[in-house]
Amino acid sequence: MIDRKAFRSLSSGLYLITSHVGDRKMGCVVNTFLQVASEPPTVTVSLNKENATTAAILETGRYAATVLSQDAPMELIGTFGFHTSADTDKFAACEYSVDSADIPYVTAHGLAHFSVRVTETIDVGTHYLFVGTVEESEVLGTGDPLTYAYYHAVKGGKTPAKAASYNPEGDPENSAAAVPAAADAAAPEAPAAGKRVAWRCMICGYVEEGYPDGLPEDFVCPICGAPRDMFERIEI
Ligand code: FE
After folding, report:
1. In angstroms, what is the span from residue 135 Cα to ligand 1's centroid?
2. What is the pLDDT, as a whole number, of residue 64?
3. Model pLDDT for residues 139-153, shown as the tens digit of each residue
């Protein structure tokens, strides 16, 4: 038998994996980056086959990894974890640099950066496992690394569907939480005729309906965990 709950006891960190295709920079969030040998310094990372970043790594044979700090804002994680590089410039609002092989890497809220040349690509079902040699590494900052457990427990983060650790049977952390009735003191604005008010998460694009007067104070995005002030009012 496979008990999906068993997988939740595995510990890991959170990392930004970045690469490029021509002048288009790609990136995503993973919890699957890992050192697997010391000499040569070897790391692995698995990425969903559907990720734009995966296509970039397959093309360039290179990627960079940024180890996220515990203070990394949900906006940064949401931008890289819940959007696609195919239609979003994820680097537009964050500090980054490029390595000697011209691979971009995020420096903001990073503790360290690794530049990796892929030596082997293994098909593991939904994901490719990239085995690679570290060609550059540097310390970017001090602090505690962001663990996946901290992301879930303290930051209220969720697991995107394309993550290696995503549970297709559903996790409590990923189910839409029951939310209290609207309690916003601001005067509600009437929607245009024939329209109704909804709220869109500016991080992941999730749309919440049913709160014409404003989202409850403690509302968080059920998809990416963004707080209420990351939602914009829309009419649909
Ligand atoms: Fe969201």
Report:
1. 35
2. 98
3. 999 999 999 888 877
